[in-house]
Amino acid sequence: MSYINENTLFIMKKHEKVEIISLDGKIETKEHITKILDESCLYYGSSLEGRIKSSKYLTKLSSKVPIILNEKENLILFPIYSMRNEVGLWFIYNNIMNYRKVKKYVEVTFKNNEKVLFLISYNIFYNQMLKCGNLLAIFSLKK
Fold it and tell me: What is the pLDDT of residues 103-130, one digit of tens each?
């Protein structure tokens, strides 16, 4: 099992496989993206369901909520698509240095200076980044 950690950049479902892209390289697995997320959450002390409930409670948001994977590191993940969607794409907020709109794409610059183009909505990405900042601020106040 490959756990999501502070070196993970993003997780993407691609056809029947899930790719976990990290500072250390790429891992492909046939495990369901929800299982990877849940086992990673359990590794850090709570279930995915518990992390989602906590985020919804703290932020008062109802959909596509970011989650705090690891409280010690303030490691935050956020989805681009609903959990009910067949497509899966999750980013690790902490490893994003910059992002910008490039035509129909979002170009994300990660903390290792790698730039990756994603065919996703800039507005959705931007809103998800705002949600993460909000969650981090609320969580930091609770500490």
Answer: 999 999 999 999 999 999 999 999 999 9
- Residue 69 and residue 75 in contact, taking contact as beta carbons nearer than 8 Å: yes
CATH number of 8-142: 2.40.50
pLDDT number for residue 82: 81
Q: What pLDDT, in 10s, does the model give residues 92-102?
A: 999 999 999 99
pLDDT score, position 15? 77
DSSP-derived secondary structure for 87-118: --EEEEGGGEEEEEEETTEEEEEETTS-EEEE
> Which letter does DSSP use for residue 22 in this model?
E
**Using alpha carbons only, what angle is made at residue 8 by residues 129 and 118, rounded to the nearest 5 degrees?**
55
Contact 19, 27 (CB under 8 A): yes
The residues facing 21 across adjacent strands are 10, 26
Give the whole-angstrom CA distance, residue 42 versus residue 61: 23
| Alpha-helix runs per DSSP H in 1-121 | 33-43, 48-59
Domain locations in the chain as residue ranges: 8-142
- Residue 91 token pair: 């980013």
